[in-house]
Design brief:
The complex is a heterodimer of chains A (about 290) and B (about 350).
Chain A lengths: L1 H31 L6 H18 L4 H22 L9 H23 L15 E4 L2 E4 H23 L1 H11 L1 H6 L4 H23 L9 H16 L4 H21 L4 H15 L10
Helix pairs in contact in A: 1-5, 1-8, 1-9, 1-10, 2-3, 2-4, 2-8, 2-9, 3-8, 5-6, 9-10, 9-11, 10-11
Chain B lengths: L1 H12 L1 H21 L2 H27 L6 H17 L4 H23 L4 H21 L1 H4 L5 E2 L6 E3 L3 E3 L4 H23 L2 H11 L1 H7 L3 H27 L1 E2 L6 H14 L6 H19 L3 H14 L4 H24 L1
Antiparallel strand pairs in B: 1-4, 2-3
Helix pairs in contact in B: 1-2, 1-15, 3-8, 3-11, 3-12, 3-13, 4-5, 4-6, 4-11, 5-11, 9-10, 9-11, 12-13, 12-15
Classes of the chains: A mainly alpha (about 290), B mainly alpha (about 350).
Chain lengths: ~290, ~350
């Protein structure tokens, strides 16, 4: 039983990374209608920026988080403003192919700038050590991740439901033409939403550096589980992304413990079954 | 320059003249082993296999408007099944046939679930199934050899009921087999796409509602289309196994599904010869860029971005729309002046 609880907690902390990536993915899809295959690359850029400022420039942990956010925000802005904006009205195939091309570009750029080594920075001293949970040492950092993920979720909720900008965003999602007619600048709003999505990915990437492997191929590796999560939760639904991340994170952690051979298979099986039975996902509305 | 103008005019208009170009191309393919080394032959075989896979992608994308991220799954089914059969010590043909058959069966089963979806949901469900096949090839160690894959697949000889027995162990011999198989497959596909069935596929791409109003079952046509696509991917895989002599799980990863998508896009997806042109360009490009710079992914990425933003018709589309009229007007002027 203690095995079970401990592994479920581990699953919870990895679920938070899934949640942060999936949240940005689903925001970009829900608002701009674009399924950004290169979203994992924004996560990767966040990780590399955080690593650079923390390990190489020697800034403190929080400052390096801010640095990662600024860097990824700028990249997100450039991507939306100069490339994605031109293909909003194109069939979905072109959007997928274009954003896939960005994976190639970002992977190669990180290889050119940072080399092909794995980046493993030291744990910030604030989070070193463990605390006992069910009689076992549980890393403080993992606990911090769980709280950070929930905190980011709350911040997103407050921004979308309580701020003026969030209201405009929701207006644009539900009735784009009407929102345009009452004077909301839709293109600017779309850019802002995409930058917001990039920031979410960058937080995930930046927080992942102390405990997860990060190299120049991580962008393509992290996006597929994020697809699984968003599809299960429902494309465009934030609540769905959160619940989907919890389901996938915990199930995959438990499968690793009990049935390691078919862990991957089960994840994709869940995705396929959800798509067959309920294509709009657990929390998706009408599609 | 009059003759050049005439050739250009003829090659656009005359069907017979196109056949002449095609014949020249096929003859070139057949005499290639006489004067080229094994490396070039190996490259051409890889192009042919990528070409089959691209046709598989384009059958769904260009003809029915569905982007699949899981074609590598069928490709791997064909490759693993063929590899398994050849490792059991049969001759070449049963290996290829069983490889294709396995891919076809898997495609028919999955088609029932996939064809209910379009656009993004189709891409997602094919991704899910493709990755399920990937996880099987990676984790079902007893059957697939796990991460090491199947090793030492023999390039068995082509043997047909004691009528003939051709050794396939040299590169040129296997080259002829691959080329003949690919050409036959492409010809069959050409006939399919120019049959009423092919017109239905295009009709579904352009307007699903209208096709169903005419009284044709969209679902059934998509099922057939998906299955044919699976068969073509499976044939590509089955031809790959004896060529490489090893098959690893990376053949079924979703990243492997993107190669034919890029090749199709390069060549042009609304053109029958697009996948052929695309696969050739893709391989040459990769070969050239890798020789010049380490950063081939960057160059390829930029090329794809430019293609998607400007020439969605690919090389063949751009050729038809821009280069051909330009050449004609250019040469026509000279013709008048001269």
């Amino acid at each position: 039983m203690s095995n079970f609880i401990f592994q479920a907690l581990n699953g919870l902390s990895s679920a938070m990374f899934l949640w942060l990536v999936a949240a940005g993915l689903t925001v970009a899809f829900g608002v701009c209608g674009i399924l950004n295959v290169a979203h994992g690359s924004l996560y990767m850029m966040g990780a590399y920026f955080a690593f650079t400022s923390f390990q190489i420039l020697g800034l403190n942990f929080w400052l390096s988080l801010v640095f990662a956010l600024i860097g990824a925000g700028i990249i997100g802005f450039l991507m939306e403003r100069f490339f994605l904006r031109r293909i909003y009205d194109q069939p979905i195939e072109f959007q997928l192919i274009l954003t896939f091309a960005f994976i190639l570009v970002f992977d190669n750029l990180t290889k050119m700038i940072w080399g092909t080594m794995l980046i493993i920075p030291t744990m910030p001293s604030l989070f070193q050590g463990t605390i006992p949970i069910v009689g076992r040492p549980f890393p403080i950092y993992n606990l911090f991740i769980i709280f950070a993920g929930i905190a980011v979720g709350l911040i997103i909720w407050v921004i979308l439901k309580k701020t003026w900008w969030g209201m405009k965003l929701r207006a644009a999602v539900s009735q784009r033409e009407m929102a345009n007619a009452i004077g909301i600048n839709i293109p600017t709003l779309f850019t802002a939403a995409f930058v917001f999505a990039a920031l979410l990915a960058a937080i995930g990437g930046a927080l992942s550096t102390p405990i997860r492997v990060c190299d120049s191929g991580v962008g393509g590796a992290v996006i597929i589980p994020a697809f699984v999560v968003t599809v299960i939760g429902g494309l465009g639904s934030l609540k769905g992304a959160f619940v989907g991340a919890l389901i996938i994170g915990v199930i995959s952690a438990l499968c690793t413990l009990y049935i390691p051979f078919i862990e991957l298979f089960i994840l994709y099986l869940i995705m396929a079954v959800v798509l067959i039975i309920r294509p709009q996902g657990l929390f998706g509305g009408e599609r | 320059m009059t003759w050049l103008v005439n050739i250009l005019n003829l090659s656009i208009k005359s069907h017979r003249f196109k056949l002449v170009w095609l014949g020249a191309f096929i003859i070139l393919l057949f005499i290639l082993p006489l004067f080229s080394g094994d490396y070039l032959l190996y490259m051409v075989m890889q192009m042919a296999i990528l070409c089959l896979l691209s046709y598989s992608v384009n059958l769904l994308l260009g003809n029915t408007g569905l982007l699949s991220f899981g074609q590598a799954g069928f490709y791997a089914c064909g490759a693993y099944a063929c590899g398994k059969v050849l490792l059991a010590g049969t001759s070449l043909l049963p290996g290829i046939i069983i490889g294709v058959a396995v891919a076809a069966i898997v495609a028919i089963i999955l088609a029932f679930f996939c064809v209910r979806h379009t656009a993004i949901y189709f891409a997602m469900i094919t991704l899910a199934f493709g990755m399920m096949i990937f996880s099987l090839t990676q984790k079902w160690v007893d059957f697939t050899g796990g991460d090491d894959g199947l090793i030492g697949i023999p390039r068995a000889s082509l043997n047909f009921f004691y009528i003939f027995n051709i050794k396939m162990d040299t590169i040129p011999a296997y080259y002829y087999f691959v080329i003949v198989a690919t050409l036959i497959a492409i010809y069959i596909l050409y006939r399919i796409l120019n049959s009423p069935l092919g017109l239905i596929f295009q009709g579904i791409r352009d307007s699903e509602t209208r096709v169903s109003f005419v009284g044709i079952s969209v679902r059934k046509s998509r099922l057939i289309c998906f299955t044919i696509a699976g068969i073509y991917a499976g044939l590509g895989g089955a031809l790959l196994a004896p060529l490489e002599q090893t098959i690893t799980p990376s053949a079924s990863h979703w990243i492997a599904s993107t190669d034919p998508i890029i090749a199709t896009l390069l060549g042009g997806m609304y053109n029958f010869s697009g996948p052929i042109v695309g696969s050739v360009i893709y391989f040459l490009l990769k070969d050239i860029i890798v020789r010049l710079t380490m950063n081939w992914m960057l160059v390829l990425g930029i090329i794809i971005i430019i293609l998607v933003l400007t020439f969605r018709g690919g090389v063949m589309g751009a050729f038809r729309a821009y280069l051909l009229p330009w050449l004609k007007s250019r040469l026509g002027k000279e013709h008048k002046n001269g």
